[in-house]
Design goal:
It is a single chain. The chain is of the alpha+beta class and 72 residues long. Helices cover 26% and strands 39% of the residues. A 3-stranded antiparallel sheet has the order 1-2-3, with no helix packed on it. The longest helix has 10 residues.
Length: 72
């Protein structure tokens, strides 16, 4: 797991349910000179429940930017 700052960790934890675990991808995307992390939410047995991209400053980008990041 890449090293993420406290702001990003707090935002990820705020979005997760009590019965989910998280995985942060080792791949860090760079788009327009900003860094983005990929976060995957899994249920207790490991089945993916959702995913999203988050900026290194703790904000979640708009859907249009997140789609571009997934294509890279």
């Amino acid at each position: 797991m890449p090293k993420v700052n406290k702001i990003v960790k707090k935002e990820i934890k705020n979005r997760k349910n009590w019965n989910e675990r998280i995985e942060i991808s080792r791949h860090i995307a760079q788009y327009k000179s900003e860094e983005y992390y990929y976060v995957l939410y899994l249920n207790l047995i490991g089945i993916p429940k959702g995913a999203f991209a988050i900026r290194s400053d703790g904000t979640v980008p708009e859907l249009s930017i997140a789609k571009k990041l997934s294509l890279e």
